[in-house]
Every structure is written in structure tokens, then in C-alpha cells.
Amino acid sequence: MTPPRRKRRRPQPPPPPLPTPPAPEPPDGQAEPKNPERLYAFAEAEDGARAELDLVTLIVARSAPQPGASPEHTAVLRLCVAPLSVAELSAYLNLPFSAMTVLITELITAELVQARAPIVRQALPDRSLLEAVMHGLQRL
Fold first, then answer.
1. Taking the complete model, does pTM exceed 0.85, yes or no?
2. 93 lies in a domain?
3. Which ranges are annotated Pro residues under compositional bias (predicted)?
4. Disulfide-capable partner of 74 in 40, 65, 67, 70 (CB 3.0 to 4.6 Å)?
């Protein structure tokens, strides 16, 4: 008995690419915007002014979130029950720093949050004082 012969498959040519339909023309000959609008472009602030915030500025909530607040405002108010820096808020909410400054500026204007200066560390103590404490502890 002889084994059955297998047929070799011949490579098929790839199908021709489908023609792309032309993009519709915008009305009145206006150019279509290339980039979508960013989150901070939809801010409610009319003058575009921002609070002077740094990455280490601490934000503290003054009140609970209001029922009609946006999801971003609600999230900031819930996170800021304890003081958080702007950098931490930006990381937790996965928003860029520029968007966070706009959101926080709106909350400061509405008096829902308070911005505090970061806690400054005191200067390092004198080296001779540290050596005196170390020698005193070694004698014990």
C-alpha cells in the first residue's frame, strides 16, 4: 500500500488594498483641526488665569464634593481630605500637571480647597552637636 500524496500549497497573491474614501470637505472652506481639544481647554475659567502652584504645593479640601460637580473635581476633593501635593494628585488622577493646575485653580476660586506652602525642613543641626550626642550614647 502506498501512502497518499500531499498536494503542495502554492502561495496566494495578497488581495489588492481597498481604496480609501476621500475625507469629507469641511463646510465654508475652514480647515479641520488636527489635534483634539485638551481637558484644560474646556475649563470654566473665563480669563484663563491660574493659581501659582508648584509640584510640592499642598492642597487641602475645605468641604465635601457637591452633587453637581464634575468627576475630576469630586476626585480631587475626596483625595484632599488629608493634605496632598499637586504632584501626588496628578499621579493619582493620571492627569498632566497643567490640567491639575487648572482644576485646582477652579476649586480655589470656588473656595472648595485651600493651597498651602510645603512644609520646609529645618536646617541640619551642627555636626559637633551630633558628634557629642553620638559619643554620649556610646558611653551608655
1. no
2. yes
3. 12-27
4. 65
